[in-house]
Each structure stands twice: as C-alpha cells, then as structure tokens.
Design goal:
Blueprint: H1 2-88, H2 90-96, H3 102-121, E1 128-133, E2 138-143, H4 152-166, E3 171-178, E4 181-190, E5 193-197
Antiparallel strand pairs: 1-2, 1-5, 3-4, 4-5
Length: 198
C-alpha cells in the first residue's frame, strides 16, 4: 500500500504542477487578451479622434468659406449702393454742384445723412457710409451699431486723412488702419466731393 500512496502522491504533485501551469497559461492568455482588447480600443480611439478632427476641419472650412462668400456679397452690395448714390441720388448730385448756398447744402446733406443712416443700420458687421466735401472740409458718416476699436470721432479723422491722401481719384478702393483694425474703403467722386463706404 505504500507504493500506491507514493503513486498517489506523485500524481497529486503532478496535478498541482499541471494546475500551476494551467493557471500561468490562463493568466498569460488573460494578459494577452487584455492587451489585445486594449490595443483594439486604442486603435479605435485614435481612429475616432482622427475622424472627429477631420470632420471639424471640414466644418470649419465650410463655415469660413460661407463667411468669405457672405463678405464678398456684402462688399459688392456696398459698392453697388455707393455707385447708385454717386450716379442717381438727387441729394448727392446737389452736393456735387459748385457754389451752393448754405441752405441748399445743409438741406441736401440732411437728406443724404438720413439715407446713409438707413443703409448703415442694415450692415451685418461694423462698417458704414460717408460723404466728404473737400471745399467745406466736412465729413458726414454713419456707421452700423456693431462694436469696434476706438471711437467714431477719431475714426472719422483717420478716414478724412485717408481721403485727403488719395486726392482727386474718381474711383478708389483701398485699406487704411485705425486702432489695429483694417478698413476696406470704396470711394467714388473727385474734386469737390466724394462718397464711399468702409
């Protein structure tokens, strides 16, 4: 019987080794499966982040292109307005005439300012319209209600200075800077008066 016990003892010793080996295989398999699942999640996470980044870039590009298109439309609309006033507006035509009486000048300037007020109120960004009479050295302007750098008085001084620099230009489009912001200016007129938008 002792022999049988030894065999049983050897069997249980081998069984313990088999269990231990089985445990290590299971542990190694679990570790490998965990690493595989972790790698899959990591790859999927990176892929998802790249997809979201790409979609955001496409969305930003679409928004930027939409705003650029809208800005071009607004600029064309302002140019059209300036050209219409320059060629068709009765008050502006009166203000362009030489040797106006004071009452005529103020009456035409008043009605033109009202027209300018209506146009400036419809602008969807900071911008405005202006009239400059070189003989009277007078600038009349109306701006939209959007926030901007500086104040209107100093902006008008800067605009007036810019208009004096360009001189007798029949049609001019350019930029000037005030308080770190750039302003696109479109001007029609020469000599006595000019009309434009910024």
């Amino acid at each position: 019987m002792k022999r049988n016990r030894n065999r049983k003892g050897n069997g249980s010793r081998f069984a313990g080794a088999e269990v231990s080996t089985l445990r290590s295989y299971l542990l190694a398999g679990w570790a490998m499966a965990s690493c595989l699942v972790l790698a899959v999640f990591l790859v999927y996470g990176i892929y998802a982040i790249l997809q979201v980044t790409e979609e955001l870039a496409k969305g930003n590009q679409t928004v930027a292109s939409h705003y650029a298109l809208q800005l071009n439309k607004d600029i064309d609309s302002m140019k059209g307005y300036v050209n219409r006033v320059y060629s068709e507006n009765a008050q502006y035509q009166t203000l362009k005439r030489p040797y106006l009486q004071e009452t005529e000048w103020y009456s035409a300037a008043y009605y033109l300012a009202n027209d300018m007020e209506g146009r400036a109120g419809s602008i969807d960004y900071f911008g405005g319209v202006f009239f400059y009479d070189a003989w009277k050295d007078t600038l009349r302007s109306r701006y939209s209600e959007f926030p901007h750098a500086g104040d209107i008085y100093r902006l008008n001084l800067c605009l007036k200075s810019y208009l004096m620099e360009i001189g007798d230009t029949v049609c001019h489009e350019g930029f000037f800077e005030y308080e770190g912001e750039g302003y696109l200016v479109y001007v029609r007129g020469a000599g006595r008066s000019c009309w434009g938008s910024s």
